[in-house]
Amino acid sequence: xxxxxxxxxxxxxxxxxxxxxxxxxxxxxxxxxxxxxxxxxxxxxxxxxxxxxxxxxxxxxxxxxxxxxxxxxxxxxxxxxxxxxxxxxxxxxxxxxxxxxxxxxxxxxxxxxxxxxxxxxxxxxxxxxxxxxxxxxxxxxxxxxxxxxxxxxxxxxxxxxxxxxxxxxxxxxxxxxxxxxxxxxxxxxxxxxxxxxxxxx
Length: 201
What we know:
Blueprint: H1 2-36, H2 40-56, H3 65-72, E1 75-79, E2 83-89, E3 93-97, E4 100-105, H4 107-124, E5 133-143, E6 149-160, H5 161-164, H6 174-179, E7 182-185
Parallel strand pairs: 2-5
Antiparallel strand pairs: 1-2, 3-4, 5-6, 6-7
Helix pairs in contact: 3-4
């Protein structure tokens, strides 16, 4: 009697798990089909949910707090089923070392690291959609003498999936990877314009 009850429970659990898996498969297929068909509202909903999940996740070990804050600031600029463009805010990596605040990395270094990580997320970690290319714009915010908040363009890069697939994601430095992509770096060019040759408006 005990073995029979255990067998029935196992069958019920298997059926429940199987139903959940099948339901998830149908849901994923539905997401992919409506986005591929050009349903912009479905794409926006998917991106909102994905960005929220990223913001609520825990940072990987040894991730500088400045990089994590930049990634959390992700804002959608434009998107369709082929292309996506986002913006981030970046600040210098300032840490307390031996009781003294020190700048470990300036805002441009943080911008480069955050840009590469965000490109990786957009290409490989957004479910149900595979963008052909992505663009990441990064700026900083500052206050003027009058107290007005303004933004300064720091950096912008865009890359096709086929080019990114050849990048050394495991061992390549952000600087080397960005040289292979279409990049404007504000530390080297003060006249950068993210809208110039933009991937999508």
